[in-house]
């Protein structure tokens, strides 16, 4: 096993039971201070989009509205990802505290946890925790209340606007943006929607101040991140690590000594081949508002026994099924990519057809309606370009 | 006043109010951006993605139909990046499509076909997905054919059925590659709540939803020596047919329509407007009789409000959605069915042809009329009263097939008898028209004087607002109608089934207190019917409505009860309104249906 161990962090999962003190302290501060702390901490969304959390809260706080909502996105549908489940079962109070402070800051009295259908088993414990939390809020004179909403099980319902549609009793189809959730979210009202992990991080920031969080990580990627490590690794599981490590370091630690590639960020993320491990830094890659950066935290390790054709085939199978189907580039494009690589493999199409497919993937990236269709090109291009021979022979 | 936003589109500066979309802004400077899922009547979906444009300095393209303008935008609608992505989108749609245009009913009037010809979708496109798909073609409905292999999933139909019509017969089912437009439990259209209104058909950009056509059957009937083929033309056809034959919207083509029908070989060319006038006499008297029973006799069986019954989509809707209110619907048949019943009785006798040798064809702006003609109730003559219903579009097709240069046809007149009509019959084609026609007659029956509106134009019931209310105070009632003296007749007009639902919900809740309600299933009334030329939109509906009111204004006779042929019909056959013969031929009944 690897020699140089990456430091395991314990910010998110540390069992801290000082919610009352933290809420008391935080509630007594001006809302703008809280927002400024969040902004200066450098915290960005851990659910996929990587949007600066403080800015999101600020935009929602600045929007006038008689009713606003705080939604915790616990849909966690990305295959190979289970960090949000862990957070909700181990430290739910941190998530709830984050929601309550958000409610305070933006002027909302209502929060929802949108829970993935498969996580129904968490409900009894969560309900108890919410009950306790409500009592605490009452004691602090805070009217904020949280409710659980169970999702339908479709991957696309993790996309924020599809999630709102689903909560409103409609088919889970992403909406046009703009308008964005900060002005038109659930029920058309200003809404903050944050990932489970994002909210858990706010707890630490309120407790320790923004500096401690900011000191971790690099440039645009601050703090720690919970990763779900899977694939060809002797030690699969959930790990909290500091942002900014190279992929080489990660592989040294988690690989089985024969790692050929790592898929960073799951099906919608990027596949990094061995030769780029050293140059690849795990973080937000300098982009601020990308729709689907690989922040879900899935790290899938492939060793040299794996066929990258099969890997890509699996991802495309997933997209072909999980696309909501409403927009052309994604619904039809995913089918074409899948049948296309099959045809090349079988020799029914020349290898040059892969170039046409790469162009198609690029068109999908710039024309699809939501992050799902836009990010198919990530895995497609990174696998096809780096493992072309495996696609053909 | 909203703020003005300045931007450039293809380097042309344009200034538009805040909230305008890029697509609308482009239209202002005559730049056409291709669209498929967009339709003026519907909320924006932004799902087809053919309307994508480039904003300078932005990585991703934007859907111009859904993207509001912002200050300083520099939009390129036709950059290489936008064009090639758009071409990919069209190629993808074609790859998912059973693209056999030469065998397709929409060949020549199809938005996908137009775009693929503009963008030269060649042979070397993507893999044909049709062999990998299961699809169904539902041809069981008498009105509508739904062919999933021609569907581009733009959801125009779904939005039409759910927003405009609030029926919900169509919905999106499944996701990913299997996503499709479906009905309740994927039953055939004729087994679900579909009203056959055809509004979805009118908005479908491809051949996925089309009317069931009877053109070939009508041709072969006309070819038979032993048959006498009678044709009737609905009011709204004459203000729209021209559009399908290359003319501008808003042209009145009544004379050419008659001439064309004669050339096609119809033996008698008659007018549904005649029975529209007849409907007014029957329905108007039904209203007055009900008012008497309700106000004087206090008869609980006399239900008010009375609603109209001439729109078969509306009738099927109320049968499904408000079955407890069927005794509010006028028992008077629609003009089409009154005509049909008379064609094989009264008219057959007049021209000395055995009823079984009469073939009765109607030209309608409507797809629900096909279904109405099929209803088992519609056999008062002992035969199927109306044998074939053709839409305005189908008639245009026949005219093209016959090689007739429609625009240059000389005007011709309807045959007699059952060819004469009043202006009141004409305005049946517009929302509010039945109400206006009924008031013109009812008011005069009660008071002996004309309705107190300038030139008989009852403007409060005209227009395009979804629900309109009007009250008319009856003053100077004749002795036999003295119970109506001073009564304020409360009327309501609604068009589009979403509005119909609104009104019926209010009636049910008891928050409104109307005497008479006119409801048309289609937005704008029949002039916006599902069988009318494509496209139909707000502007075109307005032009057709203007044409209808123009036609009314020029008619020498403006009131149904003054139609000499109607008067003659009562003298020779019916004797008086609501008589036994009238009931047998001209009235019907309704049935409660399931909610799904
Ligand atoms: C296809 C798709 C699936 C998504 N699934 C999830 C999810 O399961 N959980 C999540 O937190 N965010 C998911 N997102 C991202 C959300 O849309 C949204 O950006 C996120 O919840 C915002 O929270 P954050 O700012 O805290 O990251 C998904 C996005 C897309 C496009
Ligand atoms: S990109 Fe895919 S998932 Fe997103 S809206 Fe389009 S079809 Fe649906
Ligand atoms: S729907 Fe349009 S594109 Fe498709 S086969 Fe028919 S005419 Fe051709
Ligand atoms: S015909 Fe009318 S009711 Fe039937 S599906 Fe179409 S829009 Fe809906
Ligand atoms: S049936 Fe027609 S209108 Fe409906 S989604 Fe398909 S192509 Fe669009
Ligand atoms: S017309 Fe704009 S996305 Fe379809």
Low-confidence stretches of chain A: 286-293
Under the CATH scheme, the architecture of the largest domain in chain A is: 3-Layer(aba) Sandwich
Structural class of chain A: alpha/beta
Detail the poorly predicted runs of chain B.
none
CATH class of the largest domain in chain A: Alpha Beta
Please count the helical segments of chain B. 18
Task: Describe the secondary structure blueprint for this structure.
The complex is a heterodimer of chains A (393) and B (596).
Chain A lengths: L18 H9 L3 H11 L11 H10 L6 E6 L8 H8 L1 H15 L3 E6 L7 H17 L5 E6 L9 H8 L23 E5 H13 L1 H6 L1 E2 L2 E2 L1 E8 L5 E6 L4 H8 L4 E6 L5 E4 L24 E6 L4 H15 L5 H18 L7 H15 L3 H16 L1 H5 L1
Parallel strand pairs in A: 1-2, 1-4, 2-3, 7-11
Antiparallel strand pairs in A: 5-6, 7-8, 9-10, 9-11
Chain B lengths: L3 E6 L2 E6 L4 H7 L23 E4 L6 E2 L10 E3 L3 H16 L15 H8 L18 E2 L5 E4 L8 H9 L6 E3 L6 E3 L16 H5 L5 E3 L3 H8 L5 E6 L20 H11 L3 E4 H24 L10 E2 L4 H10 L13 H17 L6 E7 L3 H7 L13 E4 H10 L21 H4 L6 H15 L19 E7 L14 E8 L1 H13 L6 E5 L17 H17 L9 H11 L5 H7 L10
Parallel strand pairs in B: 1-5, 11-12, 11-14, 13-18, 14-15, 17-18
Antiparallel strand pairs in B: 1-2, 3-4, 3-5, 6-7, 7-10, 8-9, 16-17
The structure holds flavin mononucleotide, iron/sulfur cluster (4 copies) and FE2/S2 (inorganic) cluster.
Account of the protein in words:
- The complex is a heterodimer of chains A (393) and B (596).
- Chain A is of the alpha/beta class and 393 residues long.
- Chain A folds into two domains: 213 residues, Rossmann fold, CATH 3.40.50.11540; 81 residues, NADH-ubiquinone oxidoreductase 51kDa subunit, iron-sulphur binding domain (de novo design (two linked rop proteins), Up-down Bundle).
- Chain A is 44% helix and 15% strand.
- In chain A, the strands form three sheets. A five-stranded mixed β-sheet of chain A has the order 8-7-11-9-10.
- The two termini of chain A are 33 Å apart.
- About 2% of the residues of chain A have low confidence.
- By secondary structure, chain B is of the alpha/beta class.
- Chain B has a five-stranded mixed β-sheet, with helices on both faces. A four-stranded parallel β-sheet of chain B has the order 12-11-14-15, with helices on both faces. In chain B, strands 13-18-17-16 form a four-stranded mixed β-sheet, with helices on one face.
- In chain B, β3 and β4 form a beta hairpin.
- In chain B, α8 crosses α10 and α8 crosses α14.
- The model of chain B has no long low-confidence stretch (mean pLDDT 97).
- At the A-B interface, α11, α12 and α13 of A face α2 of B.
- The structure holds flavin mononucleotide, iron/sulfur cluster (4 copies) and FE2/S2 (inorganic) cluster (FES).
- The site of one iron/sulfur cluster has 14 residues of chain B, from α4 and α5.
